[in-house]
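Researcher: Quick one. two chains, 1072 residues in total.
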Amino acid sequence: MKTYITIIFIGISIFFTSCTDVIDVNVPTADPRLVIEASLDWEKGTSGNEQTITLSTSTKYFEKIESNIVTGASVKVTNDNDDTEFIFIDQNNGKYTTTNFIPVLNQSYTLEIIYNNETYIAKETMTPVVDIAAITQSTEDGDDDEALEVNVIFNDPKNEENFYFIKFREKGGLLPELYNDNDEFTNGNQMTLRYEKEEDDDINQEEFKPNDVVDISFHGVSKGYYDYISIFIDQIDAGGPFGTTPVPLRGNCTNSSNPKNYAFGYFRLTQVIKTSYTFQ
Amino acid sequence: MKKHILFSLLLALLSQFSMYSQEKFTISGIISEESSNETLIGVNVLFPEISKGVVTNEYGFYSITLPQGKYKLQISYLGFKDNFQNINLTENKKLNIQLMEASEMLDEVVVTEKLEKLNIKNPQMSINRLTAGTIKQIPVVLGEADIIKSIILLPGVTNTGEGSSGFNVRGGAVDQNLILLDEATIFNSSHLFGFFSVFNPDAIKDIKLYKGGIPARYGGRVSSVLDIYQKEGNSKKFGMNGGLGAIASRLLAEGPIKKNKGAFLVGGRTSYAHLFLPLFDNDNIAYFYDLNAKLNYKINDNNNIYLSGYFGRDVFAINKVFENIYGNTVINLRWNHLFSDKLFSNLSLIYSDYFYGLELDFVGFKWDSGIRNFNIKYDLNHYLGNNFQLNYGINNIYFKFNPGEIRPNSTDSGIKREKLIDKYANELGVYIDSEHKVSNNLTLQYGIRLSNFIRLGQNELNVYQDDNPLLFNEELQIYEAIEPVDIQKFKKSDPIKTFTNIEPRAAIAYAFSDNTSIKASYNRMAQYLHLLSNTSSPTPLDVWTPSGKYIKPQLLNQYAVGYFKSINENTYSLETEVFYKDIKNRIDYIDGADLIANNAIEQDILNGKARAYGLEFLFRKNEGKFKGWLAYTISKSEQQTPGRTSQEPGINNSKWYNTPYDKTHDISFNGSYKWNEKWKFAANFVLQTGQPTNYPTGQFNYQGISVPLFDASRNSKRLPSYHRIDISATLTPRKNKTRKWQGEWVFSIYNLYNRKNAASIAFTRNQDTFVNEAIKTSIFGIIPAVTYNFKF
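Model:
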C-alpha cells in the first residue's frame, strides 16, 4: 500500500461563459401574405357587440412592420346556425369594426374576407371560460424565490377537456406576455397561471415592484387555437439552443379562391375575463 | 425454420473443417500486459514467414491452427515492445505471452510502433480504433480527456456542436449509435448536456468505432457501433492514478484480490458543483459524477469471471425550483470459458438502465422516465483453421420502458398523478459470422444476423379507425390527432406486434501487395428502438420508444468501398472510403408535436426515410516524434417524410431536406509532437460546414407581437462555418524516473483564437429598440486549463 494521500489542489483560470452577439444575416423573403387577426373576444358580463378585426400583410423579417396595413377588404362574420351576418366596416387604418355582433356560447361562426379578389374563409366556435377564483401575489413561487409574481387561480371543470390562453401586459410595458395551458394533468383541479419578471440587464428588465399594474385577459379557447398559439409562443424566439425545428405557422384561415395563398393569423371566438392587478 | 438452416450450415462447416485439421496443431493463449496482467485486445499474433496471423479477441485470447513445423512468431501491439518466439509445433500448445510497454511514461500508449499488415488484409473496414493513450493526448475543452470529443476528430464522425449530446456517424442520428460499455448498452453517452461523455478515460482499455461493415455480432442500431472495453484491474500490484482538472477530478484504484488470479478496479470521477454559474444566473448547481467498479477472477486456465458496474448521474438544480437528475446504471457479469483451444466462449448477463428525473417546483410536479433492460448474451469464437474463424452467438434483451410518470410534488399542487403506460419488448438476435482467408490476397468476412423483436403487451393500447391515428385536415392543411375508437388491454406476455429481419453482412478485402488493398462491404441492419426528439440536438429528457403497431423498425442498407495504403513501412497510412446508406422508416414529427408526456406518440409522427453518402479520407502518420492524422469528409445526409397520400404535404412538402446533423465538409487535424522526455505538445484543428438551420422568410404581427415566419425548405440554411484550434503541452518532470509517484501536468488552450462559433442563431425582437435581430449564441470562447495527472 502506498502512503501518498496528499492531493495537490490545482488553481485554474478560465473564462467560461456562453455569450450572445447580434449578427447580420441575409434572410430570404417569401411573398407577403394576408394576416388576419380576427379575435372576437366576448368579455364576460358584457354584450360583446363591439368587435374589431385587424388585417395586415406579412413583411420582410428585418423591416418595420407598421407600414403594411390592409384597407379595402370586405369582412363579414356569419352565425352558422341562423345565418345572421355581421358586416365589419373598413376604418381605413387596417381595422374593421362592428357594433352589432351577437355572441352565443358554443355557437360556430364563419369568417369571410374578400381581399384582392380572393376569398378567405375560417370557421370557429365561441368557447366559454371559467371564472377566476382569485388573483394573488407571492414571491416564493415562480422561477425566482425572491421576485414578485402574480397568480391567476381558477378551478378547472371536470368531465371536459379545457384549453386556456392568458395574456398579461404590464401597464406601460411594450410587449404582452402570452401563456397557454390545458388540463391534461390537472383535470378538475385548481390551476394557476403565473407571471413573474426576472431581473435581466440585457433587456433592461426589472422585477415587479409594489404599485406595478398588470392587465390580465383570461380566455377559454378551442383545441385548434391552443395548438396554434402553442407554436406561436414557441416561435416568438425561434432558433435558440435546444429549440425545436421551426415550422410554418398555419392558422385556420384558408383561401378558397387560391388555396396556396392561405392567410396567417387566426379567427378565434373566445369568452374572456379582463381584469387588472396592482402589486401590494 | 431459419434457425434450423443456420444450425445445419454451422454443422456442415464444422465437419468440413475438422477434416482438414489432421496433422495440424493449435497454438492458443492469452496476451496480456506484463505490468498488470491486463489482457490486450487486438494484438497481432503473426507468423511472418508464412504470412499467417490472428488477432486477439476482446478478452485477449487467440488461437491459430497450423501444420506441424517450426515457426517464428511475432507478437506486436500498439505501444508495446514486440515479442518474438521460436515455436516448434509438434503438439497443441498453450502460449500465454506478456508484453512490455514500449514507454514507461505515465499511462501513455504511444501509437503504432510496428506495421499492422493484417489491417491491410483484414476485410473489416470503416473502423477506427483509439487507445486510452491517444485519447489522453488530444487537447479538449477544459483539459478533460474525453472519448466522444476524440472520436469526432475522425472522418465521418461529427456532432451538432458544442454542448450537444452524442455524436453522429456518417450522417446518422445520435440514437442510431450502439454504444457498448463492456458489452452493456448505454442509452445516453453525455454528461452535462453533452459537454462531457460518460466514460472515465482512466478506466478505459480499448475503443472501437465501427462506422460501416458492421459484423453480424452487433445489432439493434443502424448507424454505428462504439464498442468500449474497460480495464479489468491490475492483478500484480496495487496502484492508483487520478487527475485534478479544471472541471472535474478523477481517482482510480486497482490491485490484486489474489495475485495473478484476481483483481479489482474502482474508479470515480466528479465535476465540481456550481460549474456553470456563468451560464445561467444565480443560485444553481450543475455537476456530474460517475463510478466504475470491476472485479475479475481467473478460476483456472479455461474459466474467467468478470463482474463490472457503472453508475453515473448528472444533477442540475436551479434556484430550488428546478431539479433534474439523470444517468445510466450498468451491472454486468461475464464468464469466459474455453471449451477447447479452438473454441472460446463468453456468457454475459447484463442489466442496464437509464433514468431521467425532473422536478419543477413552480409547476408543482415531478417527472420520472427511463428505460431498463435485461440482456443475456452468449458469444463464441471458433478458430477452425488458420484461414477460417467462425463467430456465432445469441443475444436476448428484455426491455421495460417507462415513458414517464407525473406526480404532484406537494399537497397543494393541482397536478394529478398520471402514469404514462409502460411499454415492454423483447429483442432476440442470433448470428453467425465468418472470417475466411481465401488466399494470401483475398480475405472475406460474411455473416448473417437474424433479429426478432416482439412488442409485448401493455395495459392499454389505443385502437384507431382503420389503424390510422393521424388525420390530415385538408381544408386547413394541418395534421391533427384522431381520437382512439377503442382501448385494447393486454397481458404483459401477449405479443402485440412481431418483427423479424434477416440482416446479411459481408466484406471483402483484396490486397495487391502487403501495402495496398481495396475493401468493400455491405451491411443490412434493423433498429427497433427510436429516440423521440424534435429539437436540433437530443436532450436527456428525450424518451426512447419501441417499434410496435404504429412505429416500424428502421432498416438500413449500407455499402462502402475503400482504398487502403500503408506507406514507408507504415510510417504513413492512407485510408479512403466511399459510403452510401439508406434507412427505411425514419420517423419525423408533425408541426407542433409535443413529445413530452405523450401517451399517444403515434398521433404526432409521420413515417419517412433517410439517406446519406460521402467520401472519407484519413491520412495518418503513425511513427516518429511527430504523429497524428488529417481527416477530411465530404458528405450529405438527408431525410424525406412524404405525405401518405398525394393530397398530403408530409413534412417539407414531401421533398428531401437536410438532417440537422448534415455537414458538407469536415476537416480535422490532430497532431502530437514529442520534443523530449519532458515536453510533449499536441494540437487540433477543426473546420466544418455550419450546422443546418432555418432562417425566417418574413414576419407578421399578431397579438401585438412580431413573430418570424418559416416558409422555406426545412434546414436549408446554415450556421456560419465552425472552426477552431486547440493546443496542449504536457510536462512530465524528469524526477519521475526515480520515484514511485509519477505526475504530469497538462496545460491546454481550447479555441486558441477565441472564435465565437455559433451554436445557434435565434430570431427575436429587441425589447428596447423594437427591431428584429438575429442573435448568435456561442458556447466556448478561448479556454485555458491545467490538469494534473498522477499515478503511483
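The longest helix of chain A spans residues 223-236.
Researcher: Thanks, that's what I needed.
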